[in-house]
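Form 7-S
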Amino acid sequence: MASDGEDMNMTPTESEVSAAETENESEDNLHIDAQSDEETDEESLEVEEVPVTSEEVEMDELLTQLEDYAPTMPDALTLSIMQGCGFGAVDPRIVRIVSVCAQKFISDIANDALQHCKTRTTNIQHSSGHSSNKDKKNPKDRKYTLAMEDLLPALADHGITMRKPQYFV
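Output:
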C-alpha cells in the first residue's frame, strides 16, 4: 500500500527523481510566495509618522543629561543592591535613574533633619530666656550636628519608623 501517493509500479530510482522534483517545485513555490509576501508587505506597510509627545522629549533629554552626571551613590552599589533584590540584567540608564532617586531621597531626609535641628535649637534658646554672646552668632555661621533626636522625626515624616536601641539611652 502506498500511503504517500506513490505509484506502486515505479522503480526506486523513478520514485527518488519524482520526490526530488516535488521538493524543488515546493521550494520554488515557497520562494515565489515569499517574494510576493515581501512585496505586499512593503506595499501595505506605509509607516505613518507619529508626533513625538512632550513626555518622550523630556525623557530623552533626562537620559542624555544623566549620561554626564555622576550621582553620590555609585552605579555599582545601586546595581549590586538591585541584583540582590532580584533584578537581573538591568539597563545602565535605569541604574543611573535609581541612583539619582536614592540620592534625592537621602537628601530630603537630611534636609528635614536639619530643619528639625534648627527649630529645636531655636526653641531651646527662646525658652531659656537668657543667652550668652556665644549663642548670638549669625545663624549662617552656626554649625549643626546630626543627632538622632532630629533624624527620628525626619524619618517618621517619610514613613520610616526607627527606634534607638536601649543601650544608647
